[in-house]
Specification:
Elements (H helix, E strand, L loop, with lengths): L5 E3 L4 E5 L6 E11 L4 H10 L2 E11 L13 E8 L8 E4 L2 E3 L9 E4 L1 H10 E2 L2 E2 L21 E3 L1 H5 L9 H18 L4 E3 L6 H25 L12 H14 L7 H11 L6 H6 L7 H23 L5 E5 L2 H8 L1 E4 L8 E4 L8 H11 L17
Parallel strand pairs: 8-11, 8-13, 11-12
Antiparallel strand pairs: 1-3, 2-3, 3-4, 4-5, 6-7, 6-13, 9-10, 14-15
Helix pairs in contact: 2-4, 5-7, 5-9, 6-7, 6-11
C-alpha cells in the first residue's frame, strides 16, 4: 500500500461503550490521516459493503472512563471500518489509490470534473444547502462546513472542449471563469484555484504539453475501439493484441500510451468486470467525437498524476462520479516520469486477467521491460 496519507479534520468520532458500567460516549480524533486504499480494497468493499481504512492521528477528546485509547493529545493508529449511511457517490482518486471523499476536505487540492462542478452548483447556494431544507445525503454535503480547507481546482472544467481537441488558451480562460463563478456562488468560503490570471499560465503550459499525446490517443481510439465491441475468445486474444500493436506502430504511437493500455484492458476483461470497455464505450461507427470523449477521461488520469507528481505536498485528488474511470484509476500504477510523452503506466491483474502463456506473448508484443510476472495469474477456467 502507498505510504502517502490524506488528512481530514471533519467529523471524526467513534462511539464507544464502557463494558463495566454500560455508559456510552465518543472518542474524537483530530489531525486524522488516511492511508489510500487500492482496487483490491474496493472490490472487497463492494462485496462486503464496508471499508477497513487505516487511519492515523491524535486523540482530541474521550470519556474519562475509557482505558482502551491513548490519553488525550497522544497519537494513535487504528483500522477504521466505514459503513456510512450517507452515499459515497463521489470518489476521490489519490496517489496510491483512493480514499473516501471526506478525506479531501481539509488541506487537499480537489480536481473537480465537470460533473462535480454541476453537482456543487445543484446542491449549494451561498454556502448553504439548496433547497434550504434539504437534508445531508452524501459526503459531498460536508463541503458547507466552515472547517473545510480544501482548494477546488477548475482545471478539468477549463480543459474540456466540445471541439474534439484540447481548447485554446482563450477558451480555457472562458471556461475557467464560468466554473469559478459557479463554485463561488455555491460555496463562497471554499478556496478556488487558479485565482489570479497569472496562475492560468500553468494550465496553458500543461495543456500544450499534452496536446500531441492527447491527439495521438484520439487517433488511436478511433481505429482500435471498434475491435473491442465484443470480447474475443481466449484463444483469439493474442492474435488481436498483435493486430492492435501493429496498428499503433503504423500510426507512430507508443504501446505505452494510456489509450492503448485501455484498449488492451478492454480486450482482456470479462463481462462481469471491464471498466476499460465501459469507459471507452466502443461501437461500430466509432467517431472522432466518441474518441475525444473517451480520451478526455483517460487524459484526466494523466493530468491528475502529473499534478500529483509535480506537487506531492498539495495532496491532489481527482474527484469524480464516474465509477468506471475510478475503477480504471484504482488498477493503474504510475512510474514517476518528467513529461506526459514519457508516461509509464502499469495495469493491475484485475484489469489484465491473462494466463501465463498470454503473459509470455504480451512480453513479446509490448517488450519484456513492460511485463512484471511477479503476480500470480488467475486460475485457468474450468471449462
Amino acid at each position: 500500500m502507498h505510504k502517502d496519507y490524506y488528512p481530514t479534520d471533519l467529523f471524526f468520532k467513534l462511539p464507544i461503550k464502557c463494558e463495566k458500567t454500560g455508559s456510552t460516549g465518543h472518542v474524537q480524533f483530530k489531525e486524522v490521516q488516511a492511508q489510500p486504499l487500492n482496487l483490491d480494497d474496493w472490490l472487497q468493499y463492494v462485496d462486503s459493503k464496508d471499508i477497513t481504512l487505516r487511519i492515523y492521528g491524535k486523540i482530541a477528546s474521550k470519556p474519562s472512563w475509557d482505558d482502551k485509547f491513548p490519553p488525550v493529545g497522544n497519537s494513535f493508529m487504528a483500522n477504521f471500518t466505514v459503513s456510512p449511511t450517507l452515499s459515497n457517490s463521489c470518489l476521490a482518486l489519490v496517489t496510491g489509490g483512493w480514499v473516501p471523499l471526506i478525506h479531501t476536505f481539509s488541506e487537499s487540492h480537489i480536481i473537480a470534473d465537470r460533473n462535480i462542478v454541476s453537482e456543487i452548483n445543484a446542491r449549494f447556494k451561498n454556502g448553504n444547502h439548496h433547497p434550504a431544507n434539504r437534508a445531508d445525503d452524501d459526503f459531498i454535503d460536508y463541503l458547507i462546513d466552515d472547517k473545510c480547507s480544501c482548494t477546488i481546482h477548475t482545471i478539468s472544467y477549463a480543459l474540456e472542449s466540445n471541439e474534439r481537441r484540447l481548447p485554446t488558451s482563450e477558451k480555457i480562460k472562458e471556461q475557467h471563469d464560468a466554473a469559478y463563478r459557479s463554485i463561488s456562488n455555491a460555496l463562497p468560503h471554499i478556496k478556488i484555484w487558479p485565482k489570479a490570471d497569472a496562475d492560468l499560465n500553468y494550465i496553458y503550459e500543461l495543456a500544450d504539453s499534452f496536446r500531441a499525446y492527447f491527439n495521438d490517443g484520439v487517433r488511436l481510439l478511433t481505429k482500435l475501439a471498434p475491435l473491442v465491441i465484443n470480447l474475443p475468445a481466449r484463444g483469439k486474444r493474442v492474435k488481436l493484441w498483435k493486430a492492435m500493436a501493429e496498428i499503433a506502430k503504423n500510426e507512430g504511437i507508443s504501446l505505452s500510451h494510456i489509450a492503448f493500455l485501455a484498449i488492451l484492458s478492454a480486450s482482456a476483461g470479462t463481462q462481469k468486470f471491464n471498466p476499460a470497455q465501459k469507459l471507452l464505450k466502443p461501437k461500430p461507427n466509432y467517431s472522432e467525437q466518441d474518441a475525444y470523449n473517451s480520451m478526455y477521461d483517460l487524459f484526466l488520469i494523466g493530468l491528475a498524476n502529473t499534478m500529483q507528481t509535480q506537487a506531492p505536498e498539495k495532496k491532489v485528488a481527482l474527484v469524480t462520479r464516474d465509477k468506471n474511470l475510478a475503477l480504471f484509476w484504482m488498477g493503474l500504477t504510475f512510474a514517476e516520469t518528467p513529461s506526459s510523452s514519457q508516461l509509464m503506466i502499469g495495469l493491475h491483474k484485475h484489469l489484465l486477467p491473462v494466463s501465463e502463456e498470454e503473459l509470455d506473448q504480451l512480453s513479446q508484443i509490448l517488450g519484456s521491460n513492460r511485463i512484471n510476472a511477479s503476480w500470480t495469474p488467475p486460475a485457468k477456467p474450468m471449462y
